[in-house]
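Wait, can you check?
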Amino acid sequence: MRWTLDDVIAAAFTTLEAEGLDRLTLRGVARTLGSHLNSVSSYVKTKQSLIETMADHIIGSVDVTHLPDEPVERARAVATRYRDALLAHRDGGRLVAGTFTGTGKTLRVADTVVGALLDAGYDERDAARLCWSIVYFTLGLTQEEQTPAGDPGRSFHQLIASGGYPSLARIGEHLMVTDSFDDRFHYGLSRLLPPRG
């Protein structure tokens, strides 16, 4: 049977979901595909090129249609959809971080955000830097959300009990540890993208 690049990418995502990014290999993708390594390496030569292709597919899944007319809300909607696309895959944030394929799929999302920011009245420099800030904030928070943690509440209690962190004790566990990632994301986005008057 002749496999296509789409078959290879589908098998790569199946492998990612089952084994995680650290254990993702071309051989593992071939095994998932039920094929030989040559079938995979004829499309992607290295693990890094596989990751870049997968990242492009993740970013390419971000829908940039049916957006709000108001520019800041448009940028906020794309950022939320970007986060959703990352969270849809195991280790999605870590997989996309550090890649830049520069394809139409990747650039389409960036162009939509930058266009919204320009429409909102930001100058070119601010629009570019704010777009990167949104991307980095979203990637970082998503990676944190997708990284398994032990019991951060227990560690927090022990550290606070030492008396060495009075400001954190004042804020409390509910904001420092148990605050939801959704709330953190929406708060951070509201600070990066305040309403324009």
